[in-house]
Amino acid sequence: MVELEKNKNISVHMDTLEQHPHCSHGPTILFSRGLDGKKFYSCAAYRDKKKCSFFLWENQSGEKYVQQFERDPIISKMIRFKLQSRLKFVKSLNQENRIYCHKCNELLPKSEKHLHLEHEDFLQENIDDFKLSRPSQLQFYQCNDFRWFNLFNCYILEECDTKEILVDLLSKEDSMAVLIDPPFGGRLEPIAYTMKKFDDIRLKHNKNFLTKFLILPYFMERYVKSCLPEMSMLDYKVDYSNHKKFNDTGRNKGSPIRLFTNANQSKIPLPSDENYHFCEECNRWVSGENNHCYQCGGCMSKNGRKYIHCNLCKKCVKCTWKHCKKCKKCCLPDHRCINDQIKTSSKNKRQGQNKKYKSSINLKSTMIKKNIYNEEIKRF
User: Domain range for residue 116?
Assistant: First the structure.
């Protein structure tokens, strides 16, 4: 949530992205920050300046400024050849002789284990063929199945590839779906730009509707709708087995991660053995605790808990909330009322003014005493 608050003070300008100066991660993004709205170019892939130091004010985007930020391609032909050769070599070994270092992101034979002794906690041994062939296990692909791609500016990161590669991938099939699992702190405006590019490519080659799935927390729904109005949130809770915060262990309301999609939700069945059911009124699948509200006209729960309808607020709210007559809305029972906050703020302001006034009086009193003392000294 802190990241989202920071993002409110930063605007993203994507209209002329293809004319923006490049870093090694493709076209940079034009940002503006603060009240003055001064614009600057920065890397589309990284906010961490240690990973990419590109930074230019908008009026400094001339060639002489850009040259200092020129970088080699992220993935050159030679690097790809070495990676593919290493994968082929490790695949030829027995699984007990295969090791993967999560610290270095490197496959290696067991004979090279001594080179990674400092990373012993990050070493994964005994790698079978299943893990090597499944993206959710170790993310290894053959060159015909994988491309290094920057989602935030729709840019292919390999020097051996061109834009035609992206066109070929997106126009190969009449029916296609794209699953996007972005960093949760990333801006959605660039992602929306890339998804629009995908749609344009499909339309240009007379292909069918591109189905999209976007994985984000449920509390980002309003942000998603503002950038991608065609997307709606599925009620399915996405669990990450390797993430302690985003799974169903130790949480009484399940993972906060959801799927957003532009597909017809009535055609996306959710597993009934995981306590999902089909709501006839909403014409979509919902979780077990999500009961239909006929006053609101929908299954209104968002966070994995039951919602209750408040007749005074005229909407469904979290079951832990109570209606506050002072605030004139539903809030947590132990919240501080708005009127109380205003009174406290006014009281603190008055106390501050009184304290300042008393300090001023004490200072004048001290000065008077000091002057009297000085006069007495002069007499002697």
Answer: 82-133
